[in-house]
Design goal:
The chain is mainly β. It is built from three helices and twelve strands, in the order βββαβαββββαββββ. The strands form three sheets. It has a six-stranded antiparallel beta barrel. Strands 5-4-3-6 form a four-stranded antiparallel beta sheet. It is extended and about 75 Å long. The model has no long low-confidence stretch (mean pLDDT about 90).
């Protein structure tokens, strides 16, 4: 099972043997514990639930759920899979060495929150002309229609909350794996701020 719960450290760059500079995102990859294995017989689908960031105390419900793993991970995520590893059991740890340089993975994280944003920043609208009679309304969206159907259609591009969405980036390659530092390097950019939780999974 090639899957890990990591945290984003930041970005750097590497130089390949042919002199090409490659942007790399660094992810802190501590060992993750298997907290639950779901099967078709018991749950109707197959998946593996893993946890990270082990703490000392959690709520009673979480402690009871995590009792078989004999650990208390603060972050628990589930990864659906088509086939289950027979040698993988509840309580086993998954380390960063499940990935090797060259592996193709997907990375999922929560993008940076931008707060309330206008239409120019949120949807790349053009501003109005700064000519006579503009009254200073150069960044306002303007009329959104008052005829049929007499209400705003769902999906209309308007100002609103921007960012803080679940984003998945596919086909990223593993640049390197440093077991001593517990760091995995992925080529390209990964969504989320520093210290943000990033789920990485190998493509089957």
């Amino acid at each position: 099972m090639k899957a890990l719960i990591t945290r984003k450290v930041g970005m750097t760059s590497t130089i390949n043997d042919d002199g090409v500079v490659q942007a790399v995102t660094l992810l802190s990859a501590r060992p993750c514990v298997v907290t639950q294995i779901k099967t078709d017989e018991t749950d109707g689908y197959t998946a593996i639930q893993i946890g990270a960031d082990i703490v000392k105390t959690l709520s009673k419900s979480q402690t009871g759920h995590l009792k078989p793993s004999k650990t208390l991970p603060k972050i628990v995520r589930e990864f659906a899979t088509q086939k289950l590893e027979e040698e993988l059991k509840v309580g086993d740890f998954i380390n960063a060495d499940v990935f090797v340089p060259g592996d193709v993975v997907t990375a999922t994280g929560i993008s940076k929150g931008k707060g309330f944003a206008g239409t120019i920043k949120r949807h790349n609208f053009h501003r109005q002309r700064k000519t006579h009679g503009g009254k200073g309304n150069t960044r306002k969206p303007g009329s959104i229609g008052s005829m049929y159907p007499q209400h705003i259609l769902k999906g209309r591009k308007m100002a609103g909350r921007m960012g803080a969405d679940r984003v998945t980036v596919r086909n990223l390659k593993v640049a390197f794996v440093d077991m001593d530092l517990g760091v995995i390097g992925l080529t390209g950019a990964v969504p989320g701020p520093r210290k943000g939780v990033v789920l990485i999974r190998g493509i089957d």
